[in-house]
Design brief:
By secondary structure, this protein is α/β, with parallel strands linked by helices. Helix content is 38%, strand content 14%. The strands form 3 sheets. It has a 7-stranded mixed sheet, with helices on both faces. It has a 4-stranded mixed sheet with strand order 1-2-3-13. Strands 11-12-14 form a 3-stranded antiparallel sheet, covered by helices on one side. Helix 2 packs antiparallel against helix 10, helix 3 packs parallel to helix 10 and helix 6 packs parallel to helix 7. The chain binds (4S)-4,5-diaminopentanoic acid.
Amino acid sequence: MTKSETLFQEAVTVMPGGVNSPVRAFGSVGATPRFIKSGKGACIYDEDGNQYIDYVGSWGPMILGHANEKVLDSVIDACRRGLSFGAATAIEVEMAKLVCGLIPSIEMVRMVNSGTEAVMSAIRLARGYTKRNKIIKFTGCYHGHSDGLLVQAGSGVMTSGVPDSLGVPEGCTRDTLPADYNNLDSVKEHFQRCGEEIAAVIVEPVAANMGVVPPKPGFLQGLRKICEEYGALLIFDEVITGFRLGIDGAQGYYGVTPDLTTFGKIIGGGMPVGAYGGKREIMELVSPSGGVYQAGTLSGNPVAMAAGITQLTMLKEHPEYYRDLNEKSDKFFGKVQEMLRSAGYSWQVNHVASLGCLYFTDTEVTDYESAKTSDTKAFADYCNYMTDHGVYLAPSQFEAMFLSLAHTEEQMNETLNIMEQYFLAGLGQS
Ligand code: HOZ
């Protein structure tokens, strides 16, 4: 038995499903998790000493690669000064100034501890500001695990076998109106029926929790227009796209300005962090300057701020990083597409910049319904083959592949070779 298998056997006796977050349990690919011991650059290493080229990158934040020396030095420095004070610190001001300086739509920002918390707080703020209760979310988009947003959500919910979640009272989701991604008519229908009750539309500007689904041209612009027409707020959940598509996130990439933006782990360089921000007039409603209550002892934690500031500053100071990352990602996903075609497969490859997904379906994937046409058994077989051959993919069809600045051409070619071996062997269908 491998060390990972032994650890998993122990883990299931003391942790639900043996993990602290469902997708990493490998359940949806019918396997057991590799227990990761360390990471460096684009690689991670498990407890058995196996090396993997990593395409998860802690679900996005490791844009510089694992264990970046500068980020580590800043974390060690911060640790030496103390781990947490639960009091105001200069480094929080530095982070707020950095974020406000990088994202034009953000005039004020509040740090929290996760993307879930950021979204939950932004929704409360939108409701407080508009004095309305309803929100529109898109099926297949995932905005963390707060009660009101577990409605036809993406990510682990899509493979959990339970459509939403047990334990969420009906009252908590009564004001959540589901609409179809990339379908403005489904949004208009809600507004036509009860537009004066809708506080906000929340959207992943690139849906990256049902695989990767790019917004169709005009979709995000259309949402902006509808929100303006009805006095609702537009919230971009940039937990995945923020500081990944470019220094100014999806909003810069697509040129659409939201009223509020939420961020997650990437803002802390991999440390547990989230943030929400937007127009001054709206943000001033957050306590203690306003009446929307939200708090947290660890919010703005100095160690997390140090890691985040170092990573964001490096990205800010090197605009060529995004150009290089996006160029190599275009090339990589283009080659995946070519390889599939020449091996005789019509599986779909979606990608935006360094986010991508290979769907085991020949239907174009533009929303939740088309994402679900994917053959998840075929994906599972492929995913397990890749893992066994040293390529670590998210163990679910409905997650993204993340490339980082640390991925070398050699590592990407090696990945392509392993994929090619798999598909040329006539595998890849259930
Ligand atoms: N889709 C999630 C990240 N946005 C997966 C992370 C997890 O469940 O651990």
